[in-house]
Amino acid sequence: MTASHPPRSESAPHLDSTAQLIGGIVSRLAGQLRLVPPPVRRPAPPALVLVAHGSRDPRALTTVRALMARVRDLRPGLPVHLGHIELNEPLLPGTLAALGDARAVLVPLLLSRGYHVGQDIPGMAAAAAARTRTAAPLGPHPLLAEALHARLVEAGWPQAMDGTARRSSAVVLAAAGSRDPDSATDTRRAARLLADRLGVPVIPAYASAATPTVPEAVRALTESGRHRVAVASYFTAPGRFASQCAQAAPWIAAAPLGAHETMARLILHRYGQSLAERSTQAA
InterPro entries recorded for this chain (predicted)? Predict the structure, then answer.
C-alpha cells in the first residue's frame, strides 16, 4: 500500500511574494514622499490699521467701528485694527504699540492730503516698533464719487434727470477745510469726479479754514440760476462740521460717507495699493 503524503501547500510561496511586492511598493512610496518638500507656510498678511481723526461726537466712533466691521466682512482673516489721531480711544500710538514689531499698513480715513497725512501719522508711525507703511488718503478717487452719489440718491437726488432738471440743479461738496493747498487741490479733484458722474456743476466748499463756505457756495449757485442745490457731505462720519454744512442745504442734504460698502472697498484698495508699491520698490 502506497504511503500517503499530506498535500503540499501552494499558498505559502504566493503569500511570500505578495508581501514582498507590497513591501517594495511601500518602500518606493516612502522614498518618493521624502523627496516632496514640506509645505511652505505663507507669512501672515500685514495688519490693516484704520487711522481715524477722532471726534467728540459719539456717532463718529460708532460709524468708524461699523466701517471696520464692513472691511473685516470683505476680507476675512485680515487683521484689522483702529487707531485715532486724537480725541478717541484707542489712540494710534497705543494701537501700534500693541502690534509690537509686526508689519502693518496704515490707511488714513481722511479724504485728502494735509497736515495729518503728511506729519501726524508718519510721526506716530516712526516712533513705533511696528514695521509700517502709510497708504494714500482715501480721496480723491472714483469710488468716493460713487459713494457720494449713492448718499445723494438716498437723500432724494433723482436717479435720472432730463435736460431741464440738469440746467437747474447743482451740488455743493461740503468738506472740513484746511490751510494746506494740497488738501484744496484734492477736494477740487473730488468735486470734478462727482460732477462727471452727475452731469451737473459741483462746487467744493468748506466748513472752516478755507473758502468759499457752504452758504456762500449755495448763494452763488442760486444766483446763477441753479435753484435745486444739494449738499454732498464730504465727511467720513457725522460730527459738528457735517451737521453745520447740512443745515445750509436749500434742497437736499446727503449723509456723510460713513460705513457705506464702497468705502470699505476703497479702504482695501488703498491697503492693496500700498503693498503693491512696496513689492515694486523691492524688485
Answer: CbiX-like, Sirohydro_Cobaltochel/CbiX
List, in sequence order, every residue forming a beta bridge with 84; answer none if it has no partner.
Answer: 52, 91
Range of the domain at 104: 47-138+261-278
Which one-letter amino acid corresponds to residue 237?
A
Beta bridge partners of 169: 228
Neighbour-count burial of 250, counting CB atoms closer than 10 A to its CB (0-12 exposed, 13-18 middle, 19+ buried): middle
* Residue type (1 letter), 154: E
Q: Residue 210: what are its φ and ψ, rounded to 5°?
A: -155, 165
Burial of 102 (0-12, 13-18, 19+ CB in 10 A): middle
* Residues 165 and 200 grouped into a single domain: yes
Which grid cell sits at 220?
452763488
- Smallest CA-to-CA distance from 172 within 220, 121, 137 is with 220
What are the start-end ranges of the H helices in 86-201? Answer: 92-98, 115, 121-126, 142-155, 163-168, 181-198
pLDDT band at 141; cut points 50, 70, 90: very high
- Do 177 and 111 sit in the same domain of this protein? no
What digits encode the pLDDT tens for the residues 233-262? 999 999 999 999 999 999 999 999 999 999
The answer to whether residue 27 is domain-embedded is no
Question: Is pLDDT at 13 greater than 60 in this prediction?
Answer: no
